[in-house]
Amino acid sequence: MRPNLIGRVAIEKNHGTMSSILVQVIVGGLLLGAVYALFSSGLTLVWGMMNIVNFAHGDFVMLGMYVAFVVWTLFGAGPWAGAPIAALVLATLGVVVYFGLIRDIMKGPMLAQILGTFGLALLLRYSVFWWFGANFLSLPENLVGGTFDIVGLRIQASRLLAGVVALLVTLGLHLLLTRTSLGSKMLAVAEDSTAAQLMGIRPDTMQAIAWAIAAGATGLAGALIATFFYIVPTVGETLGIVAFVTVSLGGFGSVPGALVAGLLIGVIESLSAYLIGAVYKDMVVYSLFLGFLWFRPQGLMGKM
Amino acid sequence: MISKHFLGLLCAAAICVLPADHAFAQEKTVKVGAVFPLSGGSASAGVHAKAAIEVAMDIINNAHPEFGNFPLAKSAGFAGLGGAKVEAVFADNQGSPATGQNQTLRLITEEKVVAITGAYQSGVTLTASAIAEKYGIPFVNGESVAANLTERGFKWFFRVTPVAADFARIFFEFLADMKAAGAKTDNVAIVHDTTEYGTSVASVIASVFKERGQTIALDIAYTSNATDVQSQVLQLKEKKPDVVIMIAYTSDAILYQKTMQSLDYKPPMIIADDSGYSDPSFIKAVGKISQGAFNRSSWSVGPPGSPTALIAEMYKKKSGDDLDDTAARAMQAFFVLCEAIDRAGSTEPAKIQAALKATDLKPDQLMMGYKGVKFDEKGQNMLAAGLIIQLQDGENYVAVWPKASAGKAPVLPYKGW
Q1: If we measure between CA atoms, which residue out of A210, A240, A207, A208 comes closest to residue A222?
Q2: What is the β-pairing status of strands B243-247 and B188-193?
Q3: Rounded Cα gap, residues B192 and B203, in angstroms
Q4: Is residue B379 a part of any domain in this protein?
């Protein structure tokens, strides 16, 4: 009887760690998902509302990461300084890109838009490549308070910060679009630029503001991601695709949709990687994604 | 305008004169072709290999008595050829098998090289060496590890480097030694990506371990360039393997080390299979949180004043970087080829081939940690070996195994951060 009892205790104990690890997987997935949502919110603005596919989006994230890195190397400052500076730099870049490139290619065929932003992506990527080299860079591990335990769960402060900021950015953008006159004007331009112009709204100004906000949010995201990810000129390729999936699952132009979609993708990825195997996680995510769009092509919260 | 034309003419004249001058010098130089990826995605590896071979040329062509017993160093040039100098003719294979083939053909038919070394990627070495075989020119490879290269029945192909199976044996023997010293090594996990490199190395390790009666307890495959590896690390944390073998490129290697730290997971032992874990930017980015990670290498700097330390110093001066395992293996192959040419006392390809077949170099005549260089009938170096290095202080790898070539004793368990 005795050995049997010990065996049972051991099994139960083992079961206990198993389920606590499962909780850790889900929490990890939620934090990952919040990050996905964070770097998708900018894309959902320009893609969902302005109807422009910005292939340089991933490279905007990359630039935000490099700004955070430069701020840290020059001033020794963490994301508290790096993130706002990255948001400002990228917002400025967004306006420049709008007036220098987007405004003109929007008049051209769809193909011009695609190739135009794709060219922009390559320009940004290889400019950084030329300036910083191909080496992998990294910020110190404990720049944002390290890691702490909550009831046996390991929470990385930098990911938690990114998650909280993701919620705030989503809320902020949502309120801006639904509760302010600026937001209404932007939506009006998105819906019918000519009609908006007849109502006395300047489409150019609204579009430029939208680009500034979108790029700024993306830069902010990059600076926060840099606190727990490596930095390399090609990192935008790795992160860019996830943003496109998140936006189309969440629904074009829906900021809260991107948040929910990001969280969903994060949790599904983590769970499938843990339960089935990391190789299959993309397969699981993308087949669920395709299956979902089959029934609801407008995405979770998008309007048709 | 006129002066511009004049300058042009002058340049043209200079170009005309150059080859003539070259032909005059030909009697005293031995031309060896070196095909490497000097542009394209693997340019960094090719450029480093080129710098390494240029250092080797310096050692061979000038008198370096400080190198002691090291072949070809003592006197200037080839003693067996009356002091003739070696000249490496570099060609860019752009990382493409077709270009590698064309460049090899050009080196043989136009540059009249007497032997060839290269070509970094196994796929390029495959095609380049086929041309050398056809023309009966010795091809000595120092860094391509695909098994099939020496399985083609070639008579002119020689490979100095250890291959994946050798490294797997090194891992196994190292673990056996660690077990004898009291470490737990029964439960081994392999984490690898799904690229050609990741899958093939993982399967070779698994089969070599199995032949010796040890099964791999946990195999975690993941897609390269991952955005997140928390689940994989948690899987490891739950299964608690004694040893984790990491096969990862730089991006994923960095992410794994960062994630292990954030999830507070320290396996008792991490052994990395070169690649990402050897990248100098890996060490800069996460070396401080990867203290105690083991890695494989055949290169170690060695004590001050030793030939390897001298080579490391010369290389650093030349390229600005520390000599890495891959460039060092390419350099060793060049030395092996030149030693054979010297011994042959001839630039006739058939005589060089015969000399290569008779090669029997001892460990103290090598810069790499091989047990020697002696080719089997397939052209593979039977004495190729590697050593285990450890990132003890988080900044530099030191050789820790086998004991004969170890600078320090291995430190267990894995310290992390």
Answers
A1: A240
A2: parallel
A3: 10
A4: no
Cis peptide before B413 (omega within 30 of 0): yes
CB-CB neighbors (< 8 A) of A134 in chain B: 44
With a CB cutoff of 8 Å and minimum separation 6, the contacts of B24 are none
Q: What percent of chain B has pLDDT over 90?
A: 64
Residues in B touching A136 (Cβ below 8 Å): 250-251, 254, 279, 281-282, 284-285
Q: Considering only CB atoms, which chain A residues are within 8 Å of B279? A: 136
Q: Does residue B114 form part of some domain?
A: yes
Q: What is the CA radius of gyration of chain B?
A: 23
Q: Are B175 and B205 in contact (CB under 8 A)?
A: no
By residue range, what is the domain housing residue B242? 165-297+387-405
B60 domain-assigned: yes
Q: Token pair for residue B195?
A: 């690229």
Residue B79 and residue B345: Cα distance in Å, rounded?
Answer: 8
Q: How far apart are CA B413 and CA B417, in angstroms?
A: 12
Angle, CA of A49, A54 and A58, to the nearest 5°: 120
The total number of structural domains that make up chain A: 1
> Would the CB atoms of B229 and A18 count as touching at under 8 Å?
no
pLDDT at residue B4 greater than cutoff 60: no
A199 vs A195, A202, A207, B52, CA distance in Å?
A: 6, 9, 16, 70
Q: Which residues pair with B141 in a beta bridge?
A: B159
Beta-carbon separation of B235 and A134 below 8 A = no
B57-81 as b/e: b if 16+ CB within 10 A: bebbbeebeebeebbbbeeebbebb
In a domain, A133, yes or no: yes
User: In this structure, what is the dihedral angle of CA atoms A225, A231, A237, A241, given to the nearest 10 degrees?
Assistant: -10
- Residue B5 inside a domain? The answer is no
Q: Do B198 and B250 reside in the same domain of the chain?
A: yes
Same domain, B29 and B101: yes
B135 touches chain A (CB under 8 A): no
Measure B286 CA to nearest chain A CA, in Å: 8
Contacts B42 to A, Cβ<8 Å: none
Q: What is the CATH number of the domain that holds B30?
A: 3.40.50.2300
pLDDT along chain A (304 residues), means of 10: 39 54 92 90 81 90 96 92 96 96 88 91 88 83 83 88 91 91 89 88 91 94 93 87 90 88 94 92 91 89 74
For position A179, which CATH number holds?
A: 1.10.3470
Torsions phi, psi for B191 (to 5 deg): -115, 120
How many CB pairs below 8 A link A and B? 99
CB contact under 8 A, B228 and A270: yes
ipTM for this model? 0.87
Mutate to test the interface with B, among A22, A61, A136, A143 (most CBs of B within 10 A): A136
